[in-house]
Amino acid sequence: MITKRLVCSNLLICMVVLSSCGTLNYVPDEGWPDQSDSKFYEDWFGKQLAAASEPVLANKQDLGPYANRFRLMVLPSFSHTSVYRIDETDTGAMRLTYTLLDGAGGYEPGRIAVKVQRYLTPGETGAFLAVLNEARLPSAQPEADLRVKVDENGDEFITICGDGTQIVVERLSPLQRSFITRHECELERFPEINDLYTFVSALNVSN
Known about the structure:
Elements: E1 4-8, H1 37-51, E2 68-76, E3 82-88, E4 94-101, E5 112-119, H2 122-135, E6 148-150, E7 156-160, E8 165-172, E9 177-183, H3 191-201
Parallel strand pairs: 1-7
Antiparallel strand pairs: 2-3, 2-8, 3-4, 4-5, 6-7, 8-9
């Protein structure tokens, strides 16, 4: 007979009790496997983005003067959150806004410690567009599905990612909004998204 067991490692329980972030709504209400996911992620991610004074990227009006907007939030459990926003102008120039918070990651965002802006070089722009296109964000699921594995005894188990780094990737164009989140332990299943995360988080943030 096959039995089931759940494998967890220091699950970030405190995420459940994070307070919501005012009236802003950073996380899409639709598209999640469970209807409660939207509020759960709003309480978690929205608090960080609000602390970073980031705009909501939800609809065409949120494009402002830009042709397209992209954002990567890197959210460790115990160290500072960083946000990389790349806004594309009508001329194709890419403006990077980097914000570093001084709080304890997923447990408390803190305040803005660093905020710098610069334009990407032509080489960086080409490389960014290449990894962005490869990531195929419009077709990506908002969150990774749980995978059932079978051990040598025939027992089924699910490994849930706990403490570590969570990333949030957003893309807003005149026609579509993409919003996805992945834990670092899931990224080996999504190499194109991992390449995008690796490239953007390695950009020089000096102005």
